[in-house]
Write a structure and sequence with these properties.
95 residues; 3-stranded antiparallel β-sheet; 3 strands; mainly alpha
Length: 95
């Protein structure tokens, strides 16, 4: 296996970082990248294009975690069952 003390330390640091993000409601740029799984550069490009909800104070970017979650989930792909159900409802109400 060969797990070194450095590997364990790195994993503990990552767990601590993720735990802190879980407890916060407002994230900075680096925390947002970790939270979304996107790179810092990509998040920055999205803010430059006004494609992601964000705030700017003293030249620093901030993000509300709840708004990020809404933004990440805004384009839901319907399941086959949901599509079928909507089609049945449409047919029943538009005779």
């Amino acid at each position: 296996m060969g797990t070194t003390l450095q590997d364990i330390s790195n994993k503990l640091d990552r767990i601590e970082e993720l735990t802190l993000i879980g407890a916060k409601t407002v994230l900075d740029l680096e925390e947002t990248a970790l939270f979304t799984g996107m790179s810092v550069g990509h998040i920055y490009r999205l803010t430059s294009g006004k494609q992601i909800p964000h705030f700017k104070k003293n030249r620093k970017l901030y993000f509300k975690k709840a708004e990020l979650e809404d933004w990440m989930l805004e384009h839901k792909i319907l399941t086959e069952d949901e599509i079928q159900s909507r089609a049945s409802t449409y047919i029943a109400t538009h005779k």
